[in-house]
Amino acid sequence: MARQGMHFQASLLLAVVTLLFGSGSAQTGDARLSRFPVSVHDIVAALPGDVDHMDVARASRIWRKGVIRTYIAGNTPPTPEVVAEGLLHNETWAYYPDDKPRRSMYAGDTRAGLVPFLAHAHFGDTYSWLLYMDDDTVFFPPALLHLLRDFDPAIPYFITDHLWYANGTGPATHPHPQAPRCLPCHFDEAPYARRRRSFPAPRGCPCTPQLLCAAAPRVFNAHCDIPRHPANTFSMHGGAGAVLSAGLLRAVGLDFMEACSLSLQSTGGDAFISICLWQAGYFVTDPGLSVFMEGVHAFDPGPEDRLGAMRLLAAYIDGHREGADRHWVTTCDEACERQLGAMVSLHIRSRSFAALDDAASFIKAITTLYEVYQELLHHKEERERPAAEAAAAAEAAARVAAAAAAVAAQKLPDVGTAAAAANGTGTGAAGGGSESAESLEDQAHRLAMDKTKAGAQAAVAAGAMAETEAETEALAAAAAKETVAGTAAGLAAAAQEEIVVSETGHDAAAGDGVVAAAGEREQTEPSKPGEAGQASAEGQEAGMVLEATAAGQEASGTAAAAGQEASTTVAASQESSDAAAAGQIAAADQGVSAAVR
């Protein structure tokens, strides 16, 4: 019965690991916590339009590519021709009148502040994220999707790291590091040595005025009103843009925002939306990098340095090929690559061009440069992928091995103590010895179950720690599966070995006790038929168990070596990964069978 129990424990361990990792990346992907899958189909855009800026608004089609649904609110009713043309590009053209009289710098500022809420009334609950921008703002979808993957769109979020602010009597500047904002709850500060000299941003999901006022009470008055040093200079920057969650637009209605905006006199549409969202109970969440890294911003890093962004892209593109594989060597340094990787938006500032046609042409040019940069970056990542996956697999194997060592360190029945106890009670009744052996078997069974659970949890944790992009998940999962399958074989053999060693100690101790008792009886009374033979048989059984232990150890070493070899190999395909995993399971099962025999 004991041997059947041991075989069952090892088989159960293999079954659990196979169940968790044998079906590809589904479990591994699901285990990546704090992730909210997002694609361009989950995103809509909203921008204010002007009859004189229609060509600038149309130029953004080059990066929207007809996929991102877009709502454009102009200052004149759109003609049927404009509506029909817009439908070809997934655009909805609408009308919202200019302000008369003006209550800010431009007549279209109320429209600019309300356009996200007008767009939400149009799209309803058909999206997750809304891009809020001027008509001359460019968004870069790859960086945008990377940023949004850790944000829950159901939470009211107003995301940007580019704010107007003045922390004294001087003029407001942007982006201002002292402007109050929150950090997202999921942001990991561990990789960064310290914060910049910036606002002590609290974590907020969502960000609220109450959180900000508590974090910096000297900045705000007793009523926690929006700070004004001087008046009306604390707001997001409209040209840099922002990302609003569907949760925010469901929480704050168009009627509230319109009534609030029409009651204000301020600097612009970006001030209107900022002040009114504050009054509604929400404010800006910074993605995080700008709080810790000098010169790194996700939203319009310049500020408004379109030529600076172009130079960064040119530095990456202006390189050369070298090596046998003719790989691309860029002239973009580490700081350049860091900023390009973080850049979500860019403000072109069309008013700085001699003609709006030139601004439209620049939007197309900078988007094309960014696409070339993305292509080169993709080739670089593909070239470096095998080494990165091998390193990730080795790291995962090391983590699983550490978990296995921790499991092995758990307390097992002390063999020496058990032997002494067996020697002391060897002359006891046969019924008592049977009860003791049964108790040990139950204890070994329970410990083996604990090992099974811990090993499976360690394997799941190792798979969950792999941080890869969505497009690399399948390959990474295959590598992880092969690694875990190899390690599982080692775990199974190790668990088998420990259980056999434990039982061997008890069997050997019991054998010693029986032999000693038999010797004593021989000296004090005549031997009864069969007793000496029984003692001899029990001693032989103990010896056989010791031999089985040695066989199990040898099989365990073979399985562990096979698992170690598998951990350094990157899976070429799902089929080869499955075959490797099956081989490791078979090796482990052979080790278990050898130990049982």
UniProtKB/TrEMBL annotation:
<keyword id="KW-0812">Transmembrane</keyword>
<keyword id="KW-0732">Signal</keyword>
<feature type="signal peptide">
    <location>
        <begin position="1"/>
        <end position="26"/>
    </location>
</feature>
<comment type="similarity">
    <text>Belongs to the glycosyltransferase 31 family. Beta3-Gal-T subfamily.</text>
</comment>
<dbReference type="GO" id="GO:0016020">
    <property type="term" value="C:membrane"/>
</dbReference>
<keyword id="KW-0735">Signal-anchor</keyword>
<keyword id="KW-0472">Membrane</keyword>
<feature type="region of interest" description="Disordered">
    <location>
        <begin position="518"/>
        <end position="597"/>
    </location>
</feature>
<dbReference type="InterPro" id="IPR026050">
    <property type="entry name" value="C1GALT1/C1GALT1_chp1"/>
</dbReference>
<keyword id="KW-1133">Transmembrane helix</keyword>
<feature type="compositionally biased region" description="Low complexity">
    <location>
        <begin position="530"/>
        <end position="591"/>
    </location>
</feature>
<protein>
    <submittedName>
        <fullName>Uncharacterized protein</fullName>
    </submittedName>
</protein>
